[in-house]
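User: I'm preparing a small set of examples for a lab meeting where we compare how different chains pack in three dimensions. I only have the primary sequence for this one, and I'd like the structure in token form so I can line it up with the others. Please keep the answer compact; I'll paste it straight into my notes.
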Amino acid sequence: MKGYALLEWGKPMAEHQEPDPKPAGKEVLVAVKNCGLCHSDIHTQDGYFGDESMKLKFTDMGCKLPMFPGHEVYGFIKDFGPESGLTKADVGKPVIVFPWTGCGKCPACLSGHDEDCPTPCIIGTNMPGGFADTVIVREAKFCVDATGVDPLVAGLYACSGITALNAVHKLGPNKEDWIAVIGVGGVGLMTVAIAKALGFQKIAALDIDEAKLAIAAEYGAQKGFCSKLPGIADIIKEQTGGGVAGVVDLVGRSATVALGVDIMKRGGVHVTVGLDGGELRVPLPVLTFMQFQFRGSLVGTLQDLKEVVALARQGKIKPTPTKAVPVAEINQSMDLLRAGKVSGRIVLTHSPN
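Assistant: Understood. Below is the structure token output for the 353-residue chain.
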């Protein structure tokens, strides 16, 4: 098993090789073809989520170095353990790997919510991920059939796809009122596209980058607002008839949460997805009087992934703009992503293995 690993927190990725894994029990070995480069991989490289005011360190989550990051994996079944339920006919089948696996024994895992497991075994964090050329998957059920899905974007559905779907579901059933998506990078565009696919009719995109707002319009955003303009909250409320019913914040900074609060009307639902750091401050009388709801949203379930893949297979999700880059260019790609110079997503590609 070879690829690019994090050998020291805060340092560039480095070429790294470990013994080839052999699947045991129910495990499946997947040969990685493509792996999306996610903004959370930047946090992984740093070694923490958040900012100087509060850091959630990867070491506190049981993560150890060296680490092969990468959790948006598309590849092919290469081998399997004797209890996997697979046969030789399954070798070579294209799959999207659900990375948010847990222990498999706790109440969360047994109820289909591995992503909430208190002792996670996440691919790309606690286990080797897609920056390596092979990954071990806990069970065959986490290898979702990718037949009929564009290989270049397929892996993105395992993170940005289910993250967007889960967040949009949390806005509630009202699909006729305005909603706002703050931050229309890769996950933000996916959120706009999925909200449209689910039937939301009035979507406003907010970003500091006018070019990204133009792209968001192509994905279903009926309005775009440059969030750094003075008085932007009043402008948004005026153009949406008094404010939005829901907000999905893909940035997760104090400033973006505050903007979301400013543009919501009574009974609004604010869903925070981004992990840049900061804090939520709302006067309690405002919370009571306006009846706001605040929800966090972290990735999604295996069933969410299957739903997203089904929507993609039906052509209901406009594919995110992607650029294929050899995995050897990982550090240059991460620098571009860190600098905010990536429109859409970068997908790292491995040579056939």
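A couple of notes for your slides: Residues 2-159+300-349 form a domain with the Quinone Oxidoreductase; Chain A, domain 1 fold (CATH 3.90.180.10). The two ends are 10 Å apart (CA to CA).

User: Perfect, thanks.
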